[in-house]
Design goal:
- 51% of the residues lie in helices and 7% in strands.
- With 504 residues, it is an alpha/beta fold.
- It folds into five domains: 97 residues, no CATH class; 55 residues; 84 residues, no CATH class; 45 residues; 156 residues, Ribonuclease H-like superfamily/Ribonuclease H (Nucleotidyltransferase, domain 5).
- Strands 1, 2, 3, 4, 5 and 6 form a six-stranded mixed beta sheet that branches.
- Strand 5, helix 18 and strand 6 form a beta-alpha-beta unit.
- It is elongated and about 130 Å long.
- Keywords: Coiled coil.
């Protein structure tokens, strides 16, 4: 209970704040909005507030009825009613309830004593009622909250009350129909889920693949795997597979696979070359081994065996540091064809970034067959990187061999040490235009193949610098000795030179 002074203070502040309940309650910290509203009404009607602490204070019959109705409507809780209205005391309210509603105050027997049938009957009356839930609760002999608790236990808390205002028999039929529909939906979803899972396992498709886009042969494989769990008719409809196509492909699947051995060989070649060969090189390599297949068949077998090449693109490294010395003219003019080895050389530097650090590769490429004549690998980008590479390449030259060596305008190819080595060895220097990578596209192409086939798409997290450099060196040896080039007739650069009698 609040004192007379507290109530009067609240009403005056409420008037001051222009009848703002929220502002008044926020300022004082009391009372409830309902209590403040009632105090203001009393103040406006009587010009003052009744001091309940003075013995003999009387409440009007209207106020008593309001308090009693509030008590029965909101859960029969004395404390809540007093707190919400601001009057009277708990004992006074109990006396009013005994006085104005003696029948409603009779002690009710516990809800635990009701049978399940009695609860169902009360809930049905609640759904099909033409009166208030309060009256139905009183007729049943329980509280309104207890009646709603029975409803939640029997049909669920979220079940709408409006559904059963129609005849109960009709409602039961409707619910049964809805249950049947839900069961069909669950069945459909389970079938779709199993189709996606089997597609991932049996035909190596991603779990998010649309089954409609599968070939009829792949759909037939799925149907055969699921026919024990679902009817054929349902599977045909779900996969949009004609019945005739299913039986045709089912018969075909029973036949011996004429490409069985070739599939194994194709997969073996693909894995031996670390997933770097596309269908053209696989076709050429199969041909070199005496196995004749069309490119179309190779593509199909790769697709069925899930053999795909890693492809990625990243920004290349640039070593341009400004015009240090006078640039050499572009003698190649993008003509990267050579009639014999050691006529035209290309060079550049590329960078590899990995968790353990950075690694730089500096190779010399021969335009005759794309062979890597010489290369150096280092963690430091300095003159030693390119000078050592050049010295090793120069040692492979014959007496009368003086190739053109072409590069971009990077700082490493304009240092005095590099220029002096070219002059001493009798080579001719050539340079691309500034910022024009197509002028050295053959060398850039080598870097692209190297990174797509070997570097990109691989995790280098736990690889040390030394192991990385060793693997890179191994790749370049494989590139020269084993990797086939379609421009050379499907053989490697070293094999090509041997076929022409240019290498031992």
């Amino acid at each position: 209970m609040y004192s007379h002074e507290e109530r009067l203070k609240a009403v005056k502040l409420y008037i001051k704040y222009e009848h703002s309940l929220a502002a008044t309650i926020q300022k004082l910290g009391y009372p409830s909005p309902k209590a403040l509203y009632n105090w203001h009404q009393e103040y406006c009607e009587n010009g003052e507030l009744r001091d309940s602490s003075i013995r003999g204070t009387k409440f009007t019959l209207k106020e008593k009825k309001i308090a009693v109705e509030h008590y029965f409507e909101y859960g029969r809780n004395y404390s809540r009613t007093v707190r919400m209205l601001g009057y009277p005391g708990r004992e006074t309210l109990r006396q009013w309830c005994e006085e104005l509603a003696p029948e409603a105050r009779k002690i009710r027997r516990s809800a635990l004593n009701y049978t399940q049938e009695q609860k169902k009957e009360a809930v049905i009356r609640l759904f099909s009622r033409n009166t208030s839930a309060k009256k139905i609760a009183e007729q049943t002999g329980v509280g309104r909250k207890t009646l709603y608790d029975w409803k939640s236990d029997l049909v669920g808390r979220d079940f709408p009350l409006t559904m059963l205002k129609q005849p109960i028999e009709q409602t039961v039929d409707t619910l049964n129909s809805e249950v049947d529909d839900l069961q069909k939906q669950v069945y459909q979803l389970r079938m779709e889920k199993e189709i996606l899972e089997r597609a991932a396992v049996l035909i190596k498709k991603e779990t998010g693949i649309n089954p409609i886009n599968l070939t009829n042969r792949e759909k037939t494989i799925l149907v055969n795997a699921l026919r024990t769990n679902f009817p054929l008719k349902s599977l045909f409809q779900q996969l949009e597979l004609p019945k005739s196509s299913y039986f045709y492909h089912r018969n075909q699947l029973t036949l011996t696979d004429k490409y069985e051995e070739k599939r194994l060989l194709l997969t073996e070649i693909f894995n031996e070359n670390d997933a770097r060969y596309g269908y053209r090189r696989l076709h050429a390599e199969m041909k070199n081994k005496g196995v004749l297949l069309s490119e179309k068949v190779v593509r199909r077998l790769m697709r069925e065996e899930n053999l795909s090449v890693r492809i990625a693109r990243k920004k290349k490294y640039s070593s341009y540091a400004g015009e240090i010395t006078q640039a050499a003219p572009n003698l190649l003019q993008r003509n990267f064809k050579a009639e014999k080895p050691n006529m035209k050389w290309l060079t550049d530097i590329t960078e590899f970034r990995m968790p353990a650090g950075k690694v730089y590769l500096s190779p010399i490429i021969d335009c005759f067959d794309g062979a890597v004549v010489s290369w150096t690998i280092s963690t430091e980008l300095n003159a030693k990187l390119v000078n050592t590479m050049f010295d090793n390449a120069a040692e492979t030259l014959g007496v009368n061999e003086h190739p053109i060596i072409h590069s971009d305008r990077g700082a490493h190819y304009r240092w005095p040490g590099w220029i002096e080595r070219i002059k001493t060895s009798g080579l001719t220097q050539s340079m691309s235009k500034k910022g024009c990578s197509p002028d050295n596209s053959a060398c850039e192409g080598f870097f692209g193949r190297l990174k797509n086939e070997w570097f990109y798409g691989v995790s280098w997290k736990d690889i040390s610098i030394d192991e990385f450099m060793e693997r890179l060196d191994h790749y370049i040896h494989w590139y020269n000795e084993k990797r086939i080039k379609m421009s050379l007739g499907g053989i490697s650069p070293l094999q090509y030179r041997r076929s022409l009698g240019l290498a031992a």
